[in-house]
Write a structure and sequence with these properties.
By secondary structure, the chain is of the alpha/beta class. It has a single domain, classed as Zn peptidases (Aminopeptidase). Helices cover 37% and strands 18% of the residues. It is built from seven helices and eight strands. The strands form two sheets. The protein has a six-stranded mixed β-sheet with strand order 1-2-4-3-5-8, sandwiched between helices. A two-stranded parallel sheet has the order 6-7. The longest helix has 23 residues.
């Protein structure tokens, strides 16, 4: 399924195996060139520049939103990077927003936790460039400041998503879905949908996984009863439909999560196959959302 001849038949949006291989290469390049990306740091600022530079090579104009916010370690400056594709001309056309954080815990390479989904979105930008309208306008967001500095308590962590959600609310845009992608490059991929998501989007994701299974992919998506603190929460709090797609079983025995937030989160733990599956899951979700909007 992963190899073979690539063919695009007038698809509204298609994520190809070559896109996944490019994203996989970007994970290593990103982790090598931006090895220190803790939230609101100079290293994170360099990472934002890396993302913006890559978008420019694709002919996409990046939007850099630089802002200051209080943290447990004093006021820090954060940078969110965004890019938009306006496929629909009407002023009230709906939007799909895809997010990934790019920052890491201090001292961690963050190949899976940060780099994998950030690279996925960069490859997704290439797919959007060559696509017909998927039925929505699309916004991609690379967020700074997801990781906390001391503990995930009020005022610590999720600075970028809170800022982006507030700006999205102020824009007045009609948003069909915010899809948060996190830790989806894990070579042993198991995508979880936590309890604190918009229920209708959970059903869409499960239906999308079932469609991929019919096409020969092993189903790698399941729901969990736990609440997960992640960037999608800020969008939920602003009233947007939002979902978190996350692999929170990363390394070691089930539940051990051995590589998470450690120096072992390195590019060799990330696979192009996992990126391909995750991206195609998102594509299928967008297609299903388009159908439901038309009915």
């Amino acid at each position: 399924m992963f190899g073979g001849v690539e063919c695009v038949l007038a698809a509204a949006l298609a994520f190809l195996p070559s896109d996944a291989r490019n994203a996989h290469s970007l994970v290593s390049d990103f982790a090598r060139k931006c090895p220190v990306r803790d939230a609101g740091s100079r290293g994170a600022h360099s990472a934002a520049g890396y993302i913006a530079s890559h978008l420019k090579t694709l002919g996409v104009a990046p939007e850099l939103d630089k802002f200051a916010a209080p943290t447990p370690n004093g006021v820090r400056t954060f940078i969110n990077v965004g890019a938009e594709w306006r496929f629909e001309t009407s002023g009230d056309a709906p939007w799909i927003v895809l997010t990934s954080h790019y920052d890491t815990k201090c001292g961690c390479p963050g190949a899976n936790d940060g780099a994998s989904t950030s690279a996925l979105l960069l490859a997704f930008a290439s797919a959007l460039n060559r696509s017909e309208s998927p039925g929505f306008n699309i916004q991609l967001l690379w967020l700074d400041g997801e990781e906390c500095m001391k503990a995930y308590l009020p005022g610590d962590g999720f600075w970028g998503s809170k800022r982006a959600a507030e700006k999205l609310k102020a824009s007045g845009r009609r948003v069909k879905a915010v899809i948060c992608l996190d830790m989806l490059g894990d070579a042993d991929l198991n995508i979880s949908i936590p309890r604190n998501v918009t229920p209708s989007l959970s059903r869409v994701a499960l239906a999308a996984a079932a469609q991929l299974e019919k096409r020969g992919f092993k189903n790698k998506v399941s729901t969990i009863r736990e609440l997960v603190k992640d960037d999608h929460q800020a969008f939920l709090e602003q009233g947007f439909p939002a979902i978190d797609l996350i692999d929170f079983d990363y390394g070691g025995k089930k539940g051990e999560n051995r590589y998470w937030h450690t120096t072992e989160d390195t590019p060799d733990k990330v696979s192009a196959e996992s990126i391909l599956y995750s991206a195609r899951l998102v594509v299928e979700m967008i297609e299903q959302l388009a159908v439901s909007s038309e009915s």
